[in-house]
């Protein structure tokens, strides 16, 4: 079989001239329940390793699981939001495989009887003019299961290859998961990577609106497995059905940017193999954020390899139709309608809203507005300085170490006259750097605007004395020349002056 390295990729454009990509996306969502899926252990993130475990989630002999009712409720609400059918009767199964972070050597999941199935949703890609193209994504199933533990590979790479030794933390084992599986997404062609990103972003917004998960991708509470295959390109108008190619599954991709990059990389990698006459191996692959490539994991197992059988220690789940309809009534407005309402409420033009959607900034702007600032001010900070930082770090806006409430406080300080925009950017730098809340950063760095009229007057006098030619122009009525003196004063005051007040003092002194 032809081997593949990052140096022998086929260009993305040439790959699409020869092949049609098909994608299947599996999104794993950790629910925000207080306790685990089958026991009463806490699900709080960040606890000391192996302090949130019990005989049940460790799989000790004689321990018996009990289904978390809140998790079942969340699963139904997710299924309804994705236009799924909700099963009248379903049950759990044992998925048998060995992995160090699987304490029971099987995962309690759902196999052929998921709680939600046959759904759909739609995502929209916006072009440079703000117009959109809508793609329908068919949902095969959304099923309940439990998370695994977490392996920590100690060494230079942080991965199992080359590690000195490995540790296992079972705190995460047993946390409720919903796995949302799409049917193959075809026909997107060159837009396939962007559709993958838009779909995961859409799910994140939907789940956040439902209140069932914190969807923190950097903490692993939302993860995407990107299944991708290539088939020979079919000419336009052809009625011939081309079978799907051999797929790879890039595991646990944990940012929107990486979902798009991983799909794009696999298209180029698989195309190079096929052009050289090789065969794509059905396997799992690891995504490397630092290098932007995927590497081989293990040969992908088929369903029969997992030896599924019904879980004997759990009774079936049979949600009544009355309960399902009660839960349907609790659903928030769909993301598309939510965006349209916010755009009208915020007064954003189509292109402004396009940029907000493209940046994944709706949740953070909405929260910043709720914290007391204006939509335009919230948009200014999140789509300029903070968007640049997120792009440099390769993370999503919501993953930056600054909260919407802190951004709103920075703007409040500007509105109060305590900061100008230049100083506000320094305050944001301090907050992102972990120096504390905005007020603490202002105090520690001494960034507040100087409001002492005497100090401002002295600085204006020094600027006038040092620039007599400019002062003469202002005395002759050329008020626009005041800008030069304002710059001198602002430099003298280290930017800690109200430019508007400085201008007033200059005009007063030279009138």
TrEMBL record:
<dbReference type="InterPro" id="IPR014746">
    <property type="entry name" value="Gln_synth/guanido_kin_cat_dom"/>
</dbReference>
<keyword id="KW-0067">ATP-binding</keyword>
<dbReference type="InterPro" id="IPR017959">
    <property type="entry name" value="Asn/Gln-tRNA_amidoTrfase_suB/E"/>
</dbReference>
<keyword id="KW-0436">Ligase</keyword>
<dbReference type="GO" id="GO:0016740">
    <property type="term" value="F:transferase activity"/>
</dbReference>
<keyword id="KW-0547">Nucleotide-binding</keyword>
<keyword id="KW-0648">Protein biosynthesis</keyword>
<dbReference type="InterPro" id="IPR023168">
    <property type="entry name" value="GatB_Yqey_C_2"/>
</dbReference>
<dbReference type="GO" id="GO:0050566">
    <property type="term" value="F:asparaginyl-tRNA synthase (glutamine-hydrolyzing) activity"/>
</dbReference>
<dbReference type="InterPro" id="IPR017958">
    <property type="entry name" value="Gln-tRNA_amidoTrfase_suB_CS"/>
</dbReference>
<dbReference type="GO" id="GO:0006412">
    <property type="term" value="P:translation"/>
</dbReference>
<feature type="domain" description="Asn/Gln amidotransferase">
    <location>
        <begin position="363"/>
        <end position="510"/>
    </location>
</feature>
<dbReference type="GO" id="GO:0005524">
    <property type="term" value="F:ATP binding"/>
</dbReference>
<dbReference type="GO" id="GO:0070681">
    <property type="term" value="P:glutaminyl-tRNAGln biosynthesis via transamidation"/>
</dbReference>
<comment type="subunit">
    <text>Heterotrimer of A, B and C subunits.</text>
</comment>
<dbReference type="InterPro" id="IPR006075">
    <property type="entry name" value="Asn/Gln-tRNA_Trfase_suB/E_cat"/>
</dbReference>
<dbReference type="Pfam" id="PF02934">
    <property type="entry name" value="GatB_N"/>
</dbReference>
<dbReference type="GO" id="GO:0050567">
    <property type="term" value="F:glutaminyl-tRNA synthase (glutamine-hydrolyzing) activity"/>
</dbReference>
<comment type="similarity">
    <text>Belongs to the GatB/GatE family. GatB subfamily.</text>
</comment>
<dbReference type="InterPro" id="IPR003789">
    <property type="entry name" value="Asn/Gln_tRNA_amidoTrase-B-like"/>
</dbReference>
<comment type="function">
    <text>Allows the formation of correctly charged Asn-tRNA(Asn) or Gln-tRNA(Gln) through the transamidation of misacylated Asp-tRNA(Asn) or Glu-tRNA(Gln) in organisms which lack either or both of asparaginyl-tRNA or glutaminyl-tRNA synthetases. The reaction takes place in the presence of glutamine and ATP through an activated phospho-Asp-tRNA(Asn) or phospho-Glu-tRNA(Gln).</text>
</comment>
<dbReference type="InterPro" id="IPR004413">
    <property type="entry name" value="GatB"/>
</dbReference>
<protein>
    <recommendedName>
        <fullName>Aspartyl/glutamyl-tRNA(Asn/Gln) amidotransferase subunit B</fullName>
        <ecNumber>6.3.5.-</ecNumber>
    </recommendedName>
</protein>
<keyword id="KW-0808">Transferase</keyword>
<dbReference type="InterPro" id="IPR018027">
    <property type="entry name" value="Asn/Gln_amidotransferase"/>
</dbReference>
<dbReference type="Pfam" id="PF02637">
    <property type="entry name" value="GatB_Yqey"/>
</dbReference>
């Amino acid at each position: 079989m032809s081997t593949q390295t990052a140096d022998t990729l086929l260009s993305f454009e040439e790959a699409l001239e020869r092949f049609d990509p098909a994608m299947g996306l599996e999104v794993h969502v950790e629910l925000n329940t207080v306790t685990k899926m089958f026991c009463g252990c806490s699900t709080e993130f960040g606890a000391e390793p192996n302090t949130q475990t019990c005989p049940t989630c460790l799989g000790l002999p004689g321990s018996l699981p009990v289904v978390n009712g809140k998790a079942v409720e969340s699963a139904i609400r997710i299924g309804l939001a994705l236009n799924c059918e909700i099963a009248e009767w379903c049950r759990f199964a044992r998925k048998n495989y060995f992995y160090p972070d699987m304490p029971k050597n099987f995962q309690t999941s759902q196999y052929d009887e998921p709680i939600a199935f046959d759904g759909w949703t739609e995502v929209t890609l916006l072009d440079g003019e703000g117009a959109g193209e809508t793609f329908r994504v068919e949902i095969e199933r959304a099923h309940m299961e439990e998370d695994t533990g977490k392996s920590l590979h100690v060494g230079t790479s942080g991965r199992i290859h080359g590690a000195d030794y490995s540790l296992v933390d079972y705190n995460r084992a047993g946390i409720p998961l919903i796995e949302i599986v799409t049917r193959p997404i075809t026909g997107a062609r060159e837009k396939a990577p962007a559709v993958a990103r838009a779909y995961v972003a859409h799910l994140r917004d939907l789940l956040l609106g439902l209140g069932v998960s914190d969807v923190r991708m950097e903490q692993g509470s939302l993860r995407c497995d990107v299944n991708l295959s290539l088939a020979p390109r079919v000419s336009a108008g052809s009625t011939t059905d081309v079978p799907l190619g051999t797929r790879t599954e890039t595991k646990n991709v944990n940012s929107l940017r990486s979902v798009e990059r991983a799909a794009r990389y696999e298209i180029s990698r698989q195309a190079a193999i096929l052009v050289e006459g090789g065969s794509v191996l059905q396997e799992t692959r690891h995504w490397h954020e630092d290098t932007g490539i995927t590497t081989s994991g293990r040969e992908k197992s088929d369903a029969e390899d997992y030896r599924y059988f019904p879980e004997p220690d759990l009774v079936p789940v049979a949600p009544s139709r009355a309960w399902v309809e009660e839960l349907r009534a609790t659903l928030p407005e769909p993301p598309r309608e939510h965006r349209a309402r916010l755009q009208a409420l915020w007064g954003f033009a189509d292109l402004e809203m396009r940029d907000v959607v493209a940046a994944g900034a709706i949740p953070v702007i909405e929260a910043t507005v709720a914290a007391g600032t204006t939509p335009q001010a919230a948009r200014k900070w999140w789509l300029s300085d903070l968007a640049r930082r997120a792009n440099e770090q390769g993370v999503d806006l919501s993953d930056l170490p600054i909260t919407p409430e802190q951004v709103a406080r920075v703007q409040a300080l500007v509105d109060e006259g305590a900061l100008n925009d230049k100083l506000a950017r320094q305050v944001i730098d301090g907050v992102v750097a972990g120096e504390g809340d905005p007020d603490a950063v202002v105090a520690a760095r001494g960034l507040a605007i100087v409001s002492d009229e005497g100090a401002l007057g002295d600085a204006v006098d020094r600027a006038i004395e040092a620039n007599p030619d400019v002062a003469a122009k202002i005395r002759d009525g050329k008020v626009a020349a005041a800008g030069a003196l304002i710059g001198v004063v602002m430099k003298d005051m280290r930017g800690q002056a109200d430019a508007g007040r400085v201008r007033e003092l200059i005009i007063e002194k030279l009138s």
